[in-house]
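Lecture notes, unit on protein representations.

Consider one protein chain, 185 amino acids long.
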Amino acid sequence: MKILLINNHTRHLRSLQKSLAGHDVEVQVYKPGLNFHDAGKDLIILSGGGGEGLEIDDKTEQDRLWYEDEMDFVLRSEKPLIGICMGFEVICRAHGLTVPKMPALLHQQTSLKTTKKGQKLLGQRTLSQLEAHQWHVTQAPKGFEILAESATGIEIIKKANVFATQFHPEKPGTLSLPAILNGVI
């Protein structure tokens, strides 16, 4: 599979690359004004963030949201899309949601409960996944289905060919990135 991986300055790039072994992956480091190389790609992945301290509400010198160009790309892309952590937040913001900051950074293995739709699609009632984020989503964007939730908010959403997780499926857990690639979207 030909994959475009948009690196949102993730701390987990090596884990992502290991999870994507065997695929033809082009990595682009996100910055405002990026010319997304999506032509000829089968899938787009938006990574987590945090490696350079750029968060969902950060702004450029021109007073635009740092991730605004990526949000515009999400809305116009017709390719299958996976969002991970920051990518999940970008997808939610692109679809009109606010993404509130939590009181503290979360970095722990967390138990997630799947919804009925999530149980049907994922085949499990609970998942154990690594959460490493400081922002959270408390409602799904319009038209998206909620597939799993945790004590901090929504953890998995899906709509047509868009699948997004607040947690990190590239790290050890019940639902792995390779499993997502092999049939969830």
